[in-house]
Design goal:
Elements: H1 3-23, E1 30-35, E2 39-40, H2 45-53, E3 66-72, E4 76-82, E5 94-101, E6 107-111, E7 129-134, E8 139-144, E9 147-148, E10 151-152, E11 157-162, E12 167-173, E13 185-192, E14 202-208, E15 213-218, E16 223-228, E17 240-243, E18 246-249, E19 254-259, E20 269-274, E21 281-284, H3 285-288, H4 291-294, E22 306-307, E23 319-321, E24 326-331, E25 336-341, E26 354-358, E27 366-373, E28 379-386, H5 388-393, E29 403-409, H6 410-414
Parallel strand pairs: 2-6
Antiparallel strand pairs: 1-29, 3-4, 4-5, 5-6, 7-8, 8-11, 9-10, 11-12, 13-14, 14-15, 15-16, 17-18, 19-20, 20-21, 21-22, 23-24, 24-25, 25-26, 27-28, 28-29
Length: 440
């Protein structure tokens, strides 16, 4: 057997097996919330029954995609959850996890910021939210596809909410020429710089997963532009997914986005990949922030977007990078989370990547992933997983746990791997708080 083949087999099969059987005996990802099916805090029982009768709420239909966390200094903490309207029967598209629990043991979800903002059919409210991001300036950024199932009933829009007052700060509707009939804006990466004045110097990068494009939003100037590149497309050889025995086809393009820490020259790197691929690519943010470069030609500077030569072991959905340049990403068929240290191993892929945790029950489809900085200064990886493959194959069982939110300390996840750097410390005397105030 050739050495390269042996290394790939070690990475793909043997290491995850060892992690599952022995090295992962200490639970690196702690369970925070789980659901058999999503349930909601309706104003009263009559409102719930009416929503069911009218088809606005179909129990078992809502499927969560993303998670994020915000700690309020005096009011406690908030765990956000997104539920896109990829099918009928989803009463809340952006919510938060309450302390309440249903009679079936499912944590109850309340609409954010209220029911009116989640009302279907109101294009000044939210139609279908895939992912969100809390920034360091107490803002919640929300990307709304404007779609109900496959129908574009409202224009896609980007919103920001003040997490101090729970009121809308900005609402930007994308121009019609910047999205296609098949567009679906599903992922955002918020880029703010530490020296921004009143945080107006904010850029948001948005992945159009089925229109195969990247949108850039300039908050200061309230404008956006579209970028097209061949690396945003799906890779046909990786359009079939096999997750724990369920097989489905999905030719999705650019989906995973992650921003590097600031480099010495003041720039950042945007890492990205298509869902149907095993390739990671990158582009300097100084390139994509240049409005004049793409104002007339959305496919300008094609060679500024570069793929890494080596690859992941399997397809990946969400990803996130910590403030020391460690990238975390789901490995879908491997039922695992992988990592890569961009500082110590500049070439992504192959033996430079490692599996940090594997679990065939709890890591079936990591669709939401965030890095949270806790009050104690430690970084945490938050992950939302689902039985998405069962949704795709129509085999989801509401008697089984289908959705989970988990979290783990970054330094514990990467300890003993090549993603770990000597300056990363571990304080085992500090643990997780309650589910309503995890990041302490």
């Amino acid at each position: 057997m050739k050495l390269d083949s042996l290394i790939q087999m070690l990475y793909r099969f043997i290491i995850p097996f060892l992690l599952l059987k022995g090295c992962n005996s200490i639970q690196k990802l702690q369970p925070l919330h789980s659901w058999k099916q999503l349930e909601f805090t309706f104003p009263n029982e009559h409102a719930k029954e009416q929503a069911i009768q009218e088809g606005h709420y179909i129990p078992g239909a809502p499927v969560p995609i993303d998670v994020d966390f915000y700690h309020k200094a005096k009011q406690g903490s908030v765990v956000f959850i997104t539920i896109p309207r990829i099918q009928n029967g989803v009463p809340v598209t952006l919510g938060y996890v309450t302390d309440g629990v249903s009679s079936q043991g499912n944590p109850l979800i309340a609409p954010y910021p209220n029911w009116e903002w989640n009302r279907l059919g109101n294009c000044d409210a939210m139609t279908s939210v895939f992912r969100v991001q809390v920034d360091s300036r107490d803002r919640l950024w929300v990307i709304d596809t404007g779609k109900l199932e496959e129908r574009q009933i409202c224009r896609p829009q980007l919103l920001s909410f003040s997490l101090r007052t729970n009121t809308v700060l900005s609402q930007y509707k994308f121009p019609k020429e910047q999205f296609k009939e098949n567009s679906l804006f599903v992922t955002i990466a918020v880029d703010i710089r530490n020296n921004c004045h009143k945080c107006e110097d904010t850029f948001v990068y948005i992945a159009d997963v089925t229109g195969f494009g990247l949108l850039v939003y300039d908050h200061r100037n309230s404008r956006s532009w579209r970028i097209d590149n061949k690396l945003f497309y799906p890779y046909p050889a990786h359009g079939t997914f096999n997750i724990k025995g369920d097989t489905f086809d999905l030719m999705d393009g650019i989906l995973g986005l992650a921003l590097s820490p600031l480099k010495q020259d003041g720039d950042r790197i945007l890492y990205f990949h298509s869902l149907a691929s095993t390739t990671e690519s990158w582009v300097p943010t100084s390139t994509i922030r240049n409005h004049s470069l793409f104002a007339e030609h959305s496919d300008s500077a094609p060679r500024s977007f570069r793929p890494f030569a080596l690859q992941r072991s399997s397809q990946s959905a969400a990803q996130a990078m910590d403030d020391r340049g460690v990238l975390f990403f789901g490995l879908l068929p491997d039922l695992a989370i992988g990592c890569w240290n961009s500082i110590t191993h500049p070439e992504y892929g192959g033996i430079n990547n490692e599996v940090v945790v594997v679990n065939p029950d709890t890591l079936q489809f990591p669709s939401g992933m965030k890095i949270i900085t806790a009050k104690n200064g430690r970084q945490e990886l938050w992950v939302l997983t689902s039985s998405f493959q069962k949704f795709m194959t129509g085999t989801m069982n509401s008697n089984e746990t289908n959705f989970r939110i988990q979290a783990g300390y970054v330094d514990e996840l990467i300890r003993g791997t090549k993603c770990y750097s000597p300056h990363m410390h571990l304080d085992r005397n500090r643990g997780y708080g309650s589910s309503s105030s995890i990041a302490k």
